[in-house]
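Reminder to self: tokens first, then the designed residues, so the page reads top to bottom the way the pipeline ran.
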């Protein structure tokens, strides 16, 4: 589980990140990275991460498994992000069968490409 200060909880944060963030597409994941101040200035600083795992990935059991695996991979890259960054990771249907190492590699590549732009 991610610490509360790193969790994206508001739909406005998700929407802004997906709408105006830099999108990088990987075989199993789509990573949106938006660099900017948070909506509420009283929030504790830290990169905020949100996950989107739709029904196309599989049933509830599969979606939760994918969410746990992606969340675990995201924890590795929190130190690489700026405190004002917002990241949304969208799991594609193929992520249900992808090994965790591939998800971690794809997530790292997506974050690196998003930071470079």
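Designed residues (117 positions):
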């Amino acid at each position: 589980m991610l610490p509360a200060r790193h969790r994206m909880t508001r739909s406005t944060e998700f929407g802004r990140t997906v709408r105006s963030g830099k999108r990088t597409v990987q075989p199993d994941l789509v990573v949106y990275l938006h660099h900017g101040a948070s909506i509420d200035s009283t929030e504790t600083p830290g990169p905020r991460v949100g996950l989107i795992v739709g029904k196309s990935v599989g049933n509830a059991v599969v979606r939760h498994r994918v969410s746990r695996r992606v969340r675990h991979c995201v924890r590795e890259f929190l130190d690489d992000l700026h405190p004002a960054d917002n990241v949304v990771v969208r799991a594609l249907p193929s992520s249900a069968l992808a090994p965790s190492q591939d998800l971690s590699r794809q997530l790292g590549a997506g974050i690196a490409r998003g930071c470079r732009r």
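Strands lie at 22-25, 29-35, 48-53, 85-91.
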